[in-house]
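Operator note (shift B, R.M.): manual run for Histidine phosphatase family protein requested after the automated queue skipped it. Running by hand, logging everything below so the morning shift can see what happened. Input copied straight from the record, untouched. If output looks odd, do not overwrite the archive copy; leave it for review.
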Amino acid sequence: MKTIIYMVRHGESPYNEGNERTRGLTPKGKSDIEKVTKLLIGEGIDMIISSPYTRAILSVEGLAEHFKLDIKVFEDLRERHFASDIIENAALMSSIRESFNDPNYTLPGGESNAACQQRAISVLKPVLKEHRGKKIAIGTHGLVMTLMMNHFDPAFGLEFLNQLKKPDIYKMQFEDLELEEVTRIWND
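Run finished. Output pasted below as returned.
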């Protein structure tokens, strides 16, 4: 019995609006998410889950409305926390690279890739087990999405993360907890 997960990376989000949790989508992000909704309507989604961050929820909201489904929000699907202080982009990119070399690496006050992956997988595995044979859309973020996919196939690493778009959609086909196939659906 095949279970399908649709990883929906959020649309473009303004960095100067709100904080990590409350940032919404830019006008381009909203327009792109309308296209995401149209792309996924034909897939027959049975369940929608999301990170608690506004931009992730907004990225699957149209699907939820179309299918008349509630979005189940899981705190453990939030994006990886990088550091206790605001860090500049160059330091952030360096930290992300180092995190893929050493999954336990973290900046002071931050979270490691290993810890982020473990908490996200603690949500995804039970969803896969409890909803076998269903089609599930997940409103997510680039890094946590990459780490969830990496859990099932180590080919999904830094290079994969670096080529992701906002938004992006990956269809993952499972047989029980075995990842059988990954297909990119978003065609920017």
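Quick read of the result: The chain has a mean pLDDT of 93. The first strand starts at residue 2 and ends at 9.
Leaving this for review. - R.M.
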